[in-house]
Amino acid sequence: MLVGAAFQSRAVAAFCCRLLHARTFKNMRGLPIVSRGAPCARIGCSRGVADFSCPDLAPPVGPRPALQPPSAPPPLSTVARTASVPRELSLSIPAVPNLFGTRDRFRAPPGSASVHRGPTMVDLVEAARVRGPRAPSPSVHRFHHFLVLDFEATCDKDAPPRPQEIIEFPILRVNGKSMEVESTFHTYVRPTAHPELSAFCTELTGIVQDMVDGRPTLDQVLQMVDEWMEKEGLLDPETKSVFVTCGDWDLKVMLPGQCSHLNLQPRDCYRSWINIKKVYAASAGRYAKGIADMMAGLNLQHEGRLHSGIDDCKNIAAILKELARRGATLEVTAQL
Questions:
Q1: Residue 263: phi, psi to the nearest 5?
Q2: Are residues 186 and 170 in contact, defined by beta-carbon separation less than 8 angstroms?
Q3: pLDDT at position 141, please?
Q4: CA 67 – CA 81 distance, rounded (Å)
Q5: Locate the Exonuclease domain: which residues (predicted)?
Q6: Mind giving me the DSSP string for 282-293?
Q7: What number of CA atoms fall less than 13 Å from residue 128's CA on the CB side?
Q8: Are 232 and 173 in contact (CB under 8 A)?
Q9: DSSP for 98-164, written as a single string
Q10: How much is the CA Rg of the chain, to the nearest whole Å?
């Protein structure tokens, strides 16, 4: 009995060893693989290793069957291919989002309407990075005139006075085709809530007290601007004009805030503008702190003094002209 049981156990072990050596597996790609070199001492292999040289297993007879390559997967449909591959990899040209198609609300000055803004600086810089550098080419836009504007206002060392008031009101009319300055409106404005300028304000802007004393107040200046616009043909319904500023402060904060304080209603043309800093960010792919930074990035020579309204307008006009020459997109970036 014991001899028979031992013989039977030995036969079962040898049979299991044959199965282990002869068994064919498939890997994850569908290619057949043969198990070789796996431990098999627990099933009675005399060498303790499952190998074709094992004395308990005769070598296979005849040629080994050739391995068959995996069958090619069926072609993906257009929909499946688009769904499984990231968009930026499935297109030959990187997709740039429509930067000016979506507007977000943000807080407006007290007493003014809600403000809609375009893309952030981060959006514009990222879009320029994705797009890559472009060859200089004339800008294509829809405006006949660009009205470059840069206010100077009352200020002090620690905090601006409340209410803050415009003390310099310059506008340059730039031809939309030649990008040259063709007309200028410029006046200083007499503040009424705080008629005395601080020493800090004079040092920053170069505007002394005599330059604002006896000058028209803001309500009178707005009427003067209307007359100048009428003379220049800017109020013609067929004429497309837009203000250009360095930042959003001038037309988002300063003018609406003072008009609200004085209970004035400015024209609708002041409710939309181009922030030249956003145009620069979208074109150059980098942030700019201000006018001097943009001019350095464009290899332009700064003229006049910073925080002089009329000099700032001249330098903004030079930046606008150079960006247009490089093919920058000149569209409204914010509106009330």
A1: 60, 45
A2: yes
A3: 85
A4: 30
A5: 145-329
A6: HHHSS---SHHH
A7: 22
A8: yes
A9: -TTS--EEEPPPTTS--EEE---HHHHHHHHHHH----------S-SEEEEE--EE---SSS--SS-
A10: 38
Q: What is the pLDDT of residues 209-239, one digit of tens each?
A: 999 999 999 999 999 999 999 999 999 999 9
Cβ–Cβ contacts within 10 Å for residue 236, how many? 12
pLDDT single digits (tens) 174-193:
999 999 999 999 999 999 99
Residues 6 or more apart whose Cβ sits within 8 Å of residue 208? 197, 202
Phi and psi at 74, nearest 5°, equal -65, 145
In the block, residue with structure tokens 């979208």: 282
Dist CA 74 CA 219 (whole Å) = 74
**Rounded distance, CA 158 to CA 295, Å?**
29
Q: Please check the confidence at residue 55 and state whether its pLDDT lies above 60.
A: no
Alpha carbon distances (Å) from 131 to 96, 101, 150, 305 = 7, 18, 31, 35
Measured from the Cβ of residue 14, the count of other Cβ atoms closer than 10 Å reads 17
- Which sequence positions are flagged as catalytic? 152, 307
List Cα–Cα distances, 48 to 43, 45, 207, 213, in angstroms.
9, 5, 99, 107
Q: How many whole angstroms from its chain centre is CA 118?
A: 10
The answer to whether the CB of 282 falls within 8 A of the CB of 127 is: yes
Of 335, 334, 332, 316, nearest to 179 by C-alpha is: 316
Q: Which two tokens stand for residue 232?
A: 């220049």
What pairs with residue 181 in β-bridges? 174
Domain spans, the chain: 2-50, 104-335
Record: fold of 104-335: Nucleotidyltransferase; domain 5 (3.30.420)
